[in-house]
Every structure is written in C-alpha cells, then in structure tokens.
Amino acid sequence: MTTSHGTVTIKVANTGTFVHALEVEDAKGKGHDVETRHIKPGRTATLTLHLRKGRYEMYCPIPGHRALGMKGVLVVR
Fold first, then answer.
1. Do the beta carbons of residue 12 and residue 23 sit within 8 Å?
2. Which pLDDT band, with edges at 50, 70 and 90, does 29 fall under?
3. What is the CATH number of domain 2-76?
4. Sign of torsion, CA 28 32 33 35?
C-alpha cells in the first residue's frame, strides 16, 4: 500500500469471522505504535495518522495473527 506523507486515514473492515485489529509500527515516531480497537466481525474501524516519508509495518496485533500472514507494508512518499 502506498500513500503520500501527511495526514492519512485508513478504514479497516473485518469481513472475517474472528476479532481483528490493525497496528501501524512507529506511526507516531520514536517507537510509538498506533493501533485500532479490536474489530468484531462485520464491523469497521478507522485510524487517522500523521506520517512522514518512509516505510511502516502494519499487521493484526491479535496473538498469532501476524504469524498467519496478516501483515503488510505501508510506503509513505
């Protein structure tokens, strides 16, 4: 996923059958991660971030979900 730097809003929809969430590593800088609340099946959540140029890891922070492949990279230009 690629976006421009500045204010970025990410809307997450849980279309599965288990609770999920979305975490963006170091989104506030200096090692501060930002994550949504737990998202129940059929629900949505929104993250609004102020991002600098760079690469950010994003993933589901529910135990075991990241290892199952629920992860990605956010590239900010």
1. no
2. confident
3. 2.60.40.420
4. negative
